[in-house]
Write a structure and sequence with these properties.
- It is built from 14 helices and no strands.
- With about 280 residues, the chain is mainly α.
- The longest helix has about 30 residues.
Amino acid sequence: MKKKSELKQQLLLVCMMAVAFIFLVPIIWMVSASFQGQGQIFKVPFNWIPREASLKNYSFAITVGGLKDAFITSSISALLMISIQVSLSTVTGYVFSKYRFPGKKWLLLLIMMTLMIPGELTYFPLFDMVRGLKLTNNYFGLVLPFLYSGFGIIYMSQFAGYIPDEILDAARIDGCGNWMTFFRVALPMLKSAVSGITILAFTFIWSEFAWSRAIITQEKMRPLALVLAHLAKGSDNSVNYGGLIAGGVMVMMPILIVFLIFQKNFIESVVSSGVKG
């Protein structure tokens, strides 16, 4: 039985490695192609290791494509959105999970109903509101529709439900107020959930396109998604695929970095975080 169990584990490991390899192949191809010339990218067989590596594609994406200004715009909008959305989702989810107040069930139902509405349908009234407030070509206007997250509130509420009420009551007995109990006791126990929603929020705003296309008209204010779309169009009906691929690699790297920073807390279970129901 022990040998069969070890064999199953080895087969499972081989299958997982095969799946991981399948997902990694396109990324490896992108990185390799970004250092090769236009004529080498679609060459058969493909040179996985560039014979003459060049940074011309990256130079084209930064200078001609305008990725430098786009990185600034996307970074500021990401910091603004994450700081507000994660804070609101964490506090609101905690309140819904640990406090009783009139209309709580109806408010939760209303929040869940917003998850059923495609976000694009709300862009029309939001666009009129943002234009009326003169927030077009503005960082706050760029992230305004995403500062509230129904999914984030439900997500944090579920995690907060695993925090034992006895721990919170003990903190209050020791003299902690509601806010002090939240910051000193509850928030450390919610770090895995906060990490998870941070990764999801950053990934979304970093690649958001539809709302940015509607609200941004100035070239220097374009986020990364709009710049990549501009690179894909090319000029004179020709596309610089090397520059486009290099731009995609540079846009992808921050997402990988953010995931690597938060992955430890992201994959932690509530029990490993010290929360036991």
